[in-house]
Amino acid sequence: MRPERIDWTPPPADPDRPRQVRRILRLFRPYRGRLAVVAVLVGASSLVSVASPFLLREILDVALPQQRTGLLSLLVLGMIVSAVLGGVFGVLQTLISTTVGQRVMHDLRTSVYGRLQRMSLAFFTRTRTGEVQSRIANDIGGMQATVTSTVTSLVSNLTGVIATVVAMLALDWRLTVVSLLLLPVFVWISRRVGDERKKITTKRQKQMAVMAATVTESLSVSGILLGRTMGRADSLTRSFADESEKLVDLEVRSNMAGRWRMAVIGIVMSAMPALIYWTAGLALHLGGPAVSLGTLVAFTSLQQGLFRPTVSLLSTGVQIQTSLALFQRIFEYLDLPVDITERPDPVRLDRVKGEVRLEDVEFRYDEHGEPVLSGIDIDVPAGASLAVVGTTGAGKSTLGHLVPRLYDVTGGRVTLDGVDVRDLDFDTLARAVGVVSQETYLFHASVADNLRFAKPDASDEELHAAARAAQIHDHIVQLADGYDTVVGERGHRFSGGEKQRLAIARTILRDPPVLLLDEATSALDTRTERAVQEAIDALSANRTTITIAHRLSTVRGADQIVVLDRGRVVERGTHEELLRMDGRYAALVRRDTQLETAGG
What we know:
P-loop_NTPase; 10 strands; alpha/beta; 21 helices; 62% helix; 10% strand
């Protein structure tokens, strides 16, 4: 019995936005030093930017009217130096902030990937591969602008606004009050726009995940073969077009959300200089103190310098709110509970003999569901062989998954050399137990790279020896590129038997003391099975071997055969002993014999 494959739905997100913001800020904590340098550059840039209007006022009110050429030259030189310094500070600020942002992106990608590597097999049986890929590629990629430039832009614009307001107050407080009257309204509008875009962004990212899953499944080699042989290529194209159409709508809505309201803010801010001129003229008409031409020009220059960072600040706020949806999806993965963890002080075995025991083992996929395995007691001495047989759904593969700890037992325990596998460190368990399954996975890389995945520092001689033991060396050397031949996605350039022998060679290279064979030959024809079985026999020599068997002809020589039925051991013994019992095992043997006879 296997778990039902369904799409995984993450838990509801924490609605506490301040907590989420604090968590985002913690991502930048390791780079405090660099961010401090950015802050200094931002402050210096802001001071330089507000200096130019004051220099301009002196030019208009003093240097030009009094025809002081020397002072004019110094003031003009000051404006040029300000522009140069502003440009240099801007480049350095961009370099440092982009570097920090990319490091944060790297940390996020690595954290999510590392967390997924620690998830149990159950998570991946419930989650579409495309969904996982979309979280790492699309969601983290979508945050790139936020973590590389938005934070710096926020600090830069905020500092610029503060410095500009102070400078405007120094020039004329009355004109400053008029300039700032509408800012609270603008802030309120931008928050509304940000909330709207955040909701749309969440829907958009989910739709992108659906499309990524569709592409991953339908455009893999297996997906293409299935689609064409079933005549569903056009149907799959139409289905993808429908999903893409939904994404088009969400992209348009995301880009247009609040666009008119933000445009109104821009129009009003662009018209503010005219309002300042009118205010200055009205104040003079009503008998108020006159505003000098230099002050008026400098003030409107500062005002434009205020509006640019203010609009950018409001837009940055919208972008940050939008990015919260992406951070939320990433944090959902980072917060996933890890079912299989290593003890704080795990046991490390330098030398593993290979004694395996299952003591009153119980296992459930769901804590409230029916047990898949119950009351399992099996003892496999070091170097002995065990075969587990039974009808489909009896729990054979599930039992096999418990030994390398792909799942944790929900009752009883599994031990290796007397130590509970839950107490062993991951490296010891990975070195101790080698698995060859029916579904062989090969990377889209060369034959040599696939073999070295088991032992990265293996020499060519070791590769050749492992391939010879698996009876695949002669075939490899006949290929045009030999061991440099690229196997293709999931090894589709090789036959089923050849892939199995490559997997066996990979396991031989790792040299584990315990070997788990999970129906390793069940999908092969009889002729290919013989060749693979010979390779398995070479691999099994002097190792503790646990074979999950579909074809009983492959397990007749096992030291112990266990028959499972509905998750319980109903018979055990050698091949001859079980035949004499004339029970379940004998019935399975007769069934296999009849099938082989019927098949010729």
